[in-house]
Amino acid sequence: MKKYVLPLVLFLAGIGFILFPYLFSSGTIDLKIQPASVIMPAAYKVYSNPDVAGGRYNLFKAEITNTGSTEIHNLKVQYRVPKFIDEWTDIPAPADLLPGQVAVVTCFPVFNQTITEKNTSSKEKTEIRFLYGGKTNPTERDESFVFDMTSVNDIVFSDVSDQDKAYASDYATNVAIYACMIASEDPIIKYYAQQVQQKVLGGEQAAGVGTAGTVDQKTVAEALRVMEGVYNATALTKMVYSETSAGETKFGDNSTSTEHIRLPREVVTGNTGLCIELALLHASVLKAAGDHAVIFLIPGHAYPGIKLGNGYYAIEATGIGGSGLGGSMTADQALQAGMKEANDFFTAVQKGTPGYYLLDLEQLNENGYKEMELKDDQFLRQKVDQLAQSFQGGGGNETQQQQQPQQNDEQQTADNTNTNDNTPKPNNTTNFIAHTGNINFSYPSSWTLKNRPFSQLPILVTSITSPGGKHGAIEIYQVPGATSASQAMNYMQQTLLKLGMQVRYQADGTQSGLTRYAGSSLGARGFVYRWESYMKAVNGGVEAVVVGAGPNKAFTAIHQQIMNTIN
Prior knowledge:
single chain, alpha+beta, Immunoglobulin-like, Protein Transport Mog1p, Chain A, 3 domains, 26 strands, 28% helix
């Protein structure tokens, strides 16, 4: 028997030597954690999907390096987000790491649907646990980080750090998240769509149209009838175009534009919406009706449309106007305006103009940008019922009646701006006054200067207006805290957007060391103001001098004289 004792002892010792690292060894790890700076609840389904945008949307990445001289075994990585993901949740990770080996694990958080009830922004905490070594006595290392979580209504336009932003598209990397705010499956929007179908469209069901090939005129006519029907529904309830909040926010090392978006159900029951909010509502109802809904995004504006075969059709949803906005468009006029905008959109895209995006909602859904799930709400259904009372006999006549005053006003304006009128034309004998400041220029002595002309627009410090405003104005803006002309221009665009002015612009070189932008602003009544902006960094911010032509007018010799004096 004794002759077996020594071999048995050696055998057991060998087994123990082999198993020791698995049962008792701890090894050494080095960690580098790359956390998300912000999480948007509206996109909670996106964050859980590693296939969306190459896995860009995640809670964190952890780089784990075995810095010890022995192999690490039984590695396990877990996380939790108190209040949102309370249980420790495993993240896929390699079980073993050789000395010097590096492993990268990525956390794609699975949030519960209740995250869509979050209506405020807050700071939240992610806790991470690393377990490794012996199974009976593992080494544990805990890490954590704090991140911003927005409300369900907030869109953060970019997730690129300031130092990595190189192109215009880097400032709008998250525009696809708008697709998560489409609400074709929202019980409230589905109920609203049913009311529109029955009471505005006469109960007829329009068949959804595919995206391939061509379609006949009857199919096009029916699809446009539905699109105009959705517009008429908003007009019949006297829905108004209004503002929401937008601004510049810093998340970690990323300064980005943010926007607070009312969800489609909130637009319906609140009976008001900004351009993007109206576009989301229209697209939601059209998608619920089986149409291939799209949204056109251009600098400072958004409008909805549909794809039919190989063609696109758009409608200007903000044509409903509102109190103080100069009346409304009929559905036909809104469709005409939308189609013109769509033509301009594709022209700009062909030229490579930055800031133009076509959101194909079906394609985005297929790519993982899924709609959020929202709960039914009996109170909101009752609100829809109350609004739907306006749909009875809804043929759009009320919209036509609202339009008439605007038509008269616009006709009068057209008459006043006719090139054959008796408006005095500028000439070289005009007396000029010099304006000295951070940016110097001269202007006609007949123009009127006012300081702080609009209390609701504090960044506008001076306005110099031509008699009657017919030849436009010179405006001086000061944007405190801006570190560049592009940042100031973006802030000015967002600020004016809140006041109902849709601003488009593009870089236009330099003049006398000043950064120049050329642009146009679309007023609520359809008037277009063309302008040139001259920007300069000053102490504490950026100053801009903007020379603008009058409503629906081109630059004249007087404007050119002014712009030639800017330095």
